[in-house]
Write a structure and sequence with these properties.
The complex is a heterodimer. By secondary structure, chain A is of the alpha/beta class. Chain A is built from 10 helices and 9 strands. Chain A has one domain: 3-Layer(aba) Sandwich (Rossmann fold), CATH 3.40.50. In chain A, α1 crosses α8 and α4 crosses α5. The radius of gyration of chain A is 17 Å and the shape is globular. Chain A starts with 24 loop residues before the first helix and ends in a 5-residue tail after the last strand. By secondary structure, chain B is of the alpha/beta class. Chain B folds into 2 domains: 234 residues, Rossmann fold, CATH 3.40.50; 108 residues, 3-Layer(aba) Sandwich (Rossmann fold). Chain B is built from 11 helices and 15 strands. Chain B is globular and about 70 Å long. At the A-B interface, β2, α3 and α5 of A face α3, α4 and β9 of B.
Chain lengths: 249, 353
């Protein structure tokens, strides 16, 4: 009798992903769905979509969902979680959404210790609008609004969100992970699951930053883009646990 | 129940709790600060949630979540703060999220002044969010009416799944008047929110609040549905106004909110001089009343506002004769005196009594 060794998580729909070939979003979607499934919360989760490539998150998950105004997902998630403290609430946000236009909302939701989980995709670029410079674009990295590469003298240096938010008391768990290799994907899943568990225990705000790629707007093949994550992104955005209230960190 | 003496802003907070509001988010701004102050104290006692948000923008987006999750929710602000909420109001419109926005207007533009004003008539009735939409706007003239309208705003919001604005001015917010909290308001038959709100969906029947429709024909269809199934019904069912001394009137003031009370004083003076003048007072600014303006006995409609004439186009459209519409107003936080209003009316009416 054949055994099932791999299947689609219940939290994912059959809708074909619109993401470009090689994009990290698909991996992270699956990890979230696997974690929520394993925790038995597939029927008790609400996911908040950002503005950006992931605006269509609602069509890929079988959860209740809402498309938020640009950057405001943490405020909207605050409203949902306060009304339904027993539900798992997730915001899924990109770097333009979270680290630029939505900086006030993420900092204050974190400071209040709102009991939801943010999955933050950092690929150093605005994807949906066609490759403009993000607050996370690396120095020298080319973007359609920084065509000779980001110049820190003009644009400042990229913002490190985990480091910034971990200075607050409100967050219960903050970790930066990557999805450039199988080993990192396994670690990323463990981090997301831990964040969701901390949310369930009501410990405070949780955020997992995923260092990811954007082959299309980086102008690279999928494989080259993953090499770039390792060679350039991770050195600027070091992986690891930045906040863990259970470990006194 | 006996009446209690209460400040307008606090009465609004109490009315919201009485109406079953369980979620409030707001940011400090004069002249409405007593609303969040009162609710920060009283809302938790009533088992609800109070959040002092980091901004006006965050507050309305919290309502988008809380209202989307099925709670009766409210935010409160004043002119520049309401300006900041406009984008979020648009999301609540498109996502069909019920919520109540209490607006206590001050003089503008920009920070303007903190004195009472009606300079936000267009902001309230035309809005600043993108796209085609309307939201119901209720304009109370007394604290009693503010209390009743706040309660009714929640009913209208839930029935039509729309944001509803209660537009006041600093006068009503800041003064004290006797108010009866037991005056009944019209209850609507509201379908259970568990049919659509977040947190009540099931596998195979999940609930989704949308902000983007990539397919243009579908997006147009949704716009059309709002206009035919929502706005047309609201225009028919929810419009309201007061007519004061209009039975024998040959002239009519048109005024809402605080200004209508000044006009009532002016009417007494003008009637003492033999001028047959009354008042048409829109209580809903959208939908704007049409019927009272069909009165063929009226020679002139004198619009009086604390602004530069923002309601004039609505009055002229309703009268369908712009030559019959005159305007007098003060703005920037200045309140017209009854004498000024009498003088303006006499100037327009001239010798023809």
């Amino acid at each position: 009798m054949p055994a099932t060794v791999f299947k689609k998580p219940n939290g994912l729909t059959d809708k074909k992903l619109h993401y470009c070939p090689g994009c990290g979003h698909g991996i992270v979607h699956r990890l979230i769905a696997e974690c929520v499934d394993e925790m038995g919360d597939t029927n008790d989760t609400v996911i908040c979509a950002p503005v950006g490539c992931a605006v269509f998150v609602p069509s890929y998950f079988t959860y209740d969902s809402i498309q938020c105004a640009h950057g405001r997902a943490p405020a909207t998630a605050t409203g949902i979680k306060r009304v339904h403290p027993d539900k798992t609430v997730i915001t899924y946000q990109g770097d333009g959404d979270l680290a630029s236009i939505g900086m006030a909302e993420i900092i204050h939701a974190a400071a209040r210790g709102e009991k939801f989980t943010t999955v933050f995709i950092n690929n150093g670029i605005y994807g949906m609008t066609g490759g403009q410079m993000a607050p996370t674009t690396l120095p020298g990295m080319k973007a359609t609004t920084a065509q000779s590469g980001r110049d820190p003298k003009l644009n400042g240096n990229p913002i490190r969100i985990c480091e910034l938010l971990s200075s607050l008391t409100g967050p219960a768990y903050i970790e930066r992970v990557a999805v450039d290799s199988p080993a990192h994907v396994i670690k990323a899943k463990a981090a997301i699951k831990k964040a969701l568990q901390y949310q369930k225990e009501g410990l405070g705000f949780t955020l997992i930053e995923v260092v990811s790629n954007c082959p299309t707007n980086w102008g690279m093949t999928a494989v080259k883009s993953m090499d770039f994550v390792r060679s350039d992104m991770i050195p600027y955005y070091p992986l690891g646990v930045y906040k863990d209230v259970k470990e006194g960190k | 129940m006996a009446k209690v003496l209460m400040k307008g802003n606090e009465a609004v907070g109490k009315a919201a709790i009485q109406a079953g509001c369980t979620f409030f988010a707001g940011y400090p701004i004069t002249p409405q600060n007593e609303v969040p102050e009162y609710l920060s104290r009283e809302m938790p006692l009533a088992g609800g949630t109070f959040i002092q948000s980091e901004s006006e923008v965050a507050a309305i987006n919290m309502l988008y979540g809380a209202g989307g999750a099925g709670a009766r929710c409210m935010t409160s602000s004043s002119s520049p703060g309401i300006a900041l909420k406009q984008e979020g109001i648009g999301y609540c419109v498109f996502g069909e999220v019920p919520c109540v926005i209490n607006s206590v207007a001050r003089g503008g533009p920009a920070l303007g002044t903190i004195q009472p004003s009606q300079q936000d008539y267009l902001q309230a009735t035309r809005g600043g969010a993108n796209g085609d939409y309307h939201i119901p706007v209720l304009a109370p003239a007394t604290i009693q009416e503010a209390v009743n309208f706040v309660k009714e705003a929640f009913e209208i919001a839930d029935l039509y799944r729309t944001p509803v604005m209660v537009l006041q001015d600093g006068l009503i917010g800041q003064m004290m008047e006797p108010v009866d909290f037991d005056v009944p308001v019209k209850k609507r038959e509201i379908p259970s929110k568990s049919k659509w709100a977040l947190g009540y969906g099931k596998q195979g029947d999940t609930h989704f609040i949308e902000a983007i429709v990539m397919d243009a024909p579908m997006c147009e269809k949704k716009n059309h549905r709002f206009f035919t199934e929502k706005y047309a019904v609201i225009e028919k069912e929810e419009v309201r106004y007061e007519e004061y001394m209009m039975d024998d009137a040959e002239y009519a003031f048109v005024a809402y909110g605080s200004t209508s009370r000044i006009c009532k004083t002016a009417i007494k003076v003008l009637r003492g001089k033999g001028i047959k003048i009354g008042l048409i007072r829109p209580q809903t600014l959208w939908p704007f009343p049409q019927v009272p303006f069909q009165n063929k006995n009226i020679k002139l409609f004198i619009d009086v506002e604390m602004n530069m004439g923002q309601m004039v186009p609505d009055v002229a459209l309703a009268v369908n004769d712009k030559n019959k519409v005159k305007f007098f107003g003060r703005c920037g936080g200045m309140i017209p005196s009854p004498d000024e209003v009498v003088e303006a009316a006499e100037k327009y009416i001239g010798g023809a009594k």
